[in-house]
Request: fold
Amino acid sequence: MRVFIPCESLATETRVALIPESVQKLAKMGVSVVVEREAGLKSNFLDTDYETAGADISDDRIGELSKADLVARVRKPPQDEISALKRGALHVSFLDPFNETELIDSMAAAGVTAVSMEMIPRTTLAQKMDALSSQANLAGYFAVIEGADRLNRILPMMMTPAGTISPSRVFVIGVGVAGLQAIATAKRLGARVEAFDTRPVVEEQVKSLGAKFVKIDLGDTGQTDQGYAKELNPEQIKKQQEGMAKICAQSDIVITTAKLFGRPAPKIVTQEMVQGMRFGSVLVDLAVESGGNVAGSKLNEEVQIENGPKIIGIGALEDRVAVHASQMFSANIFNFVEHFWDEEQKTINCDLDDEILGGCVITHGGSIVHERFKKS
Reply:
């Protein structure tokens, strides 16, 4: 089997789909790996590192796309490169299938087996391939680092000869993978941490990290079978906002992580709530790429509210720690290949009756095969 790792097309993307360590493991399995020149440079992996691991370096991007049995990248492919892919090849990356219907149609027409890393089921067996969670973990960590960097205060309490410095207050909204890591990181840095989620089931996890769980009576909420928060009705949203407004007003850093899978992010922090926060405080919106949780947040911009907080709307915060983000994503890709590897045929066994493949394969054999994206 021949694997190709192209440079990412998005200029701001710093990750690479496979790092040399994973390339070496694939080579031992009998896989031929080709890496586009300087594909790993932004993640601090040199071409010589890949060559040492057993990969070939190529300048012929289109030629390699047409020869590869599997193409792996972080972001979705450019529309104009779909036709270059070999018919029957696997393409593995984040695809954003809910919003990229034209791209999915093109991949089906090209006869490509498109694997969407967002759609890997959240099961124990598939956990080692769950790139969405691995990257969210790093985003949650860096959200705290980014917030602390923008805050003109220290996070921990300090006892000094000049007096006692009170700990900064951090409020995390949304206690998924990113939220839990944000809580843990803020606590390690010495902040006083509070957190809220519409799912009461996460209260124990919040407390286990040493944070306070904020209780707001929203009535019946719960979570989906994939572990995501369910969408709230207008009355519940209003109650949530009223309950959070006071906490936001007294917080130094507010981090929002609330996303609805396959839908625009809910607006949680209203303009009124933003204006109620102290001058010098910081809001970090981790959902900015899908519309944002915070009123006034802008993708890849820092917005300073007059006499109020700074709103940080940097997309894909995991890109800021590209070495480890690439390491984790690469491990997810390798685990995917290894799990479905047919040792005798030296290829991937693409059985769509498999629970994991049935959940993440969007197109196969010239058609859209995933039940959620089939057209009636």
Observations:
- The chain is about 30% helix and 15% strand.
